[in-house]
Amino acid sequence: MAHSPRKGSPARWAAVVLPPLCLGGLMAWTAGVFRPPSISPSHFMQRFHNAGALGDGFRRAHAKGMCVTGWFDPSPKGQALSRSGIFKGEHLPVMGRFSLAPPLPYLPDNPAVARSLALQILSPKGDDWRMALVDVPLQSMRDIADAYAFFGAAKLDPATHKPDPVAVQTYAVQRPWLKTAFEQAKAHKQTSDLTNDSYNSLDSFILTDSTGKKTAVRWSVVAKEPFAPAEGSGANDGNYLFKRLVQTLDQRPLSWDIVATIARDGDPVNDPSQPWDAADQKVTVGTVTFTKAYSEDESPCGPMVFDPTILPDGISVSDDPLLALRSSVYMRSYATRSAEHKAPSMVTPGDVTNPTLTPDGKGQ
Amino acid sequence: MSFSQNTGHAAPFPRLSILLHWVMAALIIVMLFVGLVMAHDSTIHYAGLFTLHRTVGFLILLLVIVRLINRFTNRTPTLPDDLPAPMKLAAHLSHILLYGFMIALPLVGWAMLSAGGYPITLWGGCHIPPLMGFHPHLWGALRCLHSLLAYGLILLIIAHIGAALLHGVIRRDGVMGSMLGR
Ligand code: HEM
Ligand code: HEM
Ligand code: HEM
């Protein structure tokens, strides 16, 4: 056998070359080569770019924002639902980031735009709870395919610098399962300010208590400030929402309740586009209080990521497909922007030290 | 232990070396696919894949330490005498590089998630301490390095498998057998 005459035959060479080539080819295929474009985190980045994300070190979504710091005080009811170290009763530090939802970092504040709040609560034992919430009542997408189409429809028309209303309309019409979500968004009463707005996780999470019992919940961060309508509340200053938040914090701390809506049998846990039963029990697990504002250019909340799947023991993700998607896409956005040189944020350190409203119309 | 050096019957690697080689080869190939799927596909299984990736990544880091200790406390079979010197050099360099990548990839993965402020939890809930504090710029750079290292390892493994098959199928000089235990 050792000296076969057919040592260098084509068949033998094929046995040498083909296996490694096949392995390499399979890996390239997995990485998206030789494949019709499938939905990947970089395709989402492309769609955010088309929807107005600038790059320049900004988040690819919720690009305009400002940081706040304060405290979290749990209620005993939180401890009953989750064994997490967050709810053990300690007064814990919180870092938050208020933002406008669009991918546009220089969007002037206006009453029509959706707003958002991200939170990180840390315990001394290393429990790390991150949340990213928006002020709309239901998610206008139910799965990865919807999300991809949704951000495709958000593409800015080069002529108007606005999304094409026909594309947005088509997205909604083609998806009858989102009817309630769009109706509720339309009926939603926007508040005058960031200070009296309430923010929702939309996606569901699973709480585990000390006996191992699991409860599915949706989170809301509910304002303690009284409601005032958005109509007529605008000001001719591109940063009026953020400056008015700073002005209030300069006078007094601002608090929000963290409220868990408890799922009952039949509430869709894996679909953030569907409403839950209006009579579901609501439990306040604690209160966040903000005391101080910072420009995101001078606070660690600027560069960090509020990935909603970063959770302490006792809180875990549900089987909602959008949570999986968000984790991977936030990571890609976070990695890309972290490697870029950051341009100054629209809410500058100067706006935070002197939040007087001026009709500057910045960014228009 | 002594190893004969004739071209047809290179002595095999010690049993533990062979076991470690094949277990780690399988784990590394799985890791490469899992990493590629995580980074290039939007899948509802992301969280599970990521937990698997972190857990197996640390397992590989542990195994490579065992493997290096084993490697330096055992003699390694020599390559056939008739193998041209440049090929011997290529074989040695590529093996050193393979070890380098096996150590660097999990270390860079660990460092990058630490720099990015991600908590690192393994399957079963085991919590790994961060290698460094929060350095977002470093996170961006290391995330890029992790990809480059992974692509480098893929090319190296392709060449390595090709070379192993060249020994086993064309030269039939016993090198392949030395890693199969024959
Ligand atoms: C339930 C649904 C969602 C909510 C409540 C939500 C909320 C938020 C919030 C509040 C932020 C800002 C976080 C911060 O201040 O750092 C954010 C960032 C972001 N969101 Fe979402 N989001 C949702 C769904 C999605 C989906 C489906 C995608 C796309 C696949 C997406 C893509 C992004 C990206 C790319 C960022 C920037 C991440 C970064 O660079 O840090 N979001 N989201
Ligand atoms: C993920 C993949 C793999 C890695 C990381 C890897 C790594 C290594 C390393 C580091 C060595 C050197 C051992 C030493 O001298 O200490 C080695 C030897 C060897 N490997 Fe692999 N290997 C992989 C896959 C494979 C495969 C798929 C084959 C077979 C087709 C193979 C065949 C061999 C052979 C025959 C040797 C012995 C070379 C000699 O005698 O010096 N390996 N491998
Ligand atoms: C031998 C060990 C490892 C191998 C072979 C490996 C391989 C890979 C590969 C091929 C990718 C995809 C790169 C790309 O195409 O951009 C990847 C991504 C990644 N790896 Fe690893 N890795 C290893 C260890 C680790 C460890 C120990 C960690 C963390 C503790 C880690 C964390 C990550 C992360 C976070 C990503 C990015 C996923 C994404 O972009 O969604 N890796 N890895």
UniProtKB/TrEMBL annotation, chain A:
Transmembrane segments: none
UniProt xrefs under SUPFAM superfamilies: Heme-dependent catalase-like (SSF56634)
Cross-referenced InterPro entries: Catalase, Catalase_core, Catalase_sf, Catalase_SrpA-type_pred
Record's signal peptide: none
PROSITE patterns on file: CATALASE_3
Annotated ranges, domain Catalase core: 59-337
Region listing for Disordered, in residue ranges: 338-364
Enzyme class, UniProt record, top EC level: oxidoreductase
Source domain of life: Bacteria
Pfam family, one: Catalase
GO molecular function, one term: catalase activity
Keyword set, alphabetical order: Heme, Iron, Metal-binding, Oxidoreductase, Peroxidase
EC identifiers of the protein: 1.11.1.-
Function recorded in the entry: Has an organic peroxide-dependent peroxidase activity.
Family: Belongs to the catalase family.
Name of this chain's protein: Catalase-related peroxidase
Native species: Bombella dulcis
Lineage: Bacteria, Pseudomonadati, Pseudomonadota, Alphaproteobacteria, Acetobacterales
UniProtKB/TrEMBL annotation, chain B:
Location in the cell: Cell membrane
Domain Cytochrome b561 bacterial/Ni-hydrogenase residues, every copy: 13-181
Signal peptide: none
Cofactor(s) this protein cannot do without: heme b
Keywords (A to Z) from UniProt: Cell membrane, Electron transport, Heme, Iron, Membrane, Metal-binding, Transmembrane, Transmembrane helix, Transport
Main localisation: membrane
Pfam family, one: Ni_hydr_CYTB
InterPro entries named in the record: Cyt_b561_bac/Ni-Hgenase, Cytochrome_b561_oxidase, Di-haem_cyt_TM
Positions of transmembrane segments: 20-39, 46-69, 89-113, 148-170
Membrane topology value: Multi-pass membrane protein
Membership in a protein family: Belongs to the cytochrome b561 family.
Protein name, entry field: Cytochrome b/b6 domain-containing protein
Organism of provenance: Bombella dulcis
Lineage: Bacteria, Pseudomonadati, Pseudomonadota, Alphaproteobacteria, Acetobacterales
